[in-house]
Amino acid sequence: MGCYILPDASQSYREVLLFSIGTLYRLQECFVNSLLEEFFFRGFAFLVLRRYAGERFACLFSALSFALYHTAMMLGWFPPLLFLLALAGLTAGGVLFNLLDARAGTIFPSWAVHIFANLAINTVGFILFKIL
């Protein structure tokens, strides 16, 4: 398959199709999925919940839910200490997203950061798998 940014004529139809589907999925993940996550974790679980349960509870609930959502699928992949480190890092990221949105009163700041985080993670994956 080799390293490439865009498909070229030397690649098979299957390689081009897989690249195209993968690229479309990653773009959807960066823009659409991140919006849905921010709508739920920040828009509902933080911005709305804080009116009823207080800002501190809503912030921790939202951030921890966000972290569990992202790490639950990885349970058993890594040693427990590394899993806890990922959980702590994602919780801290969730708190940061909440602080951005609390200040703005909208989910757009955290969505923008989330988009760029997903783009960075996907780019690293593409480089590791020699797609870029």
Give an overview in words.
The protein has 132 residues and is mainly α. It has helices at 13-53, 55-71, 80-104, 108-128. 79% of the residues lie in helices and 0% in strands. The longest helix is centred in the first third of the chain and has 41 residues, at 13-53. The termini are close together.
Major β-sheet, in short? Answer: none
Low-confidence stretches: none
Order of helical and strand elements: HHHH
- Number of helices, counting only DSSP H or I runs of 4 residues or more: 4
Tell the overall outline: globular
Helix content: over 70%
Give a count of the beta strands, DSSP E runs of length 2 or more. 0
Percent strand equals: under 5%
Mean pLDDT: 89
Specify Rg, calculated over alpha carbons: 18 Å
What structural category do the secondary elements indicate? mainly alpha
Termini gap: 11 Å
Summarize the structure.
79% of the residues lie in helices and 0% in strands. The protein has four helices and no strands.
Secondary-structure blueprint:
Layout: H1 13-53, H2 55-71, H3 80-104, H4 108-128
Helix pairs in contact: 1-2, 1-4, 2-3, 3-4
Spell out the key features of this protein.
132 residues, mainly alpha, 79% helix, globular
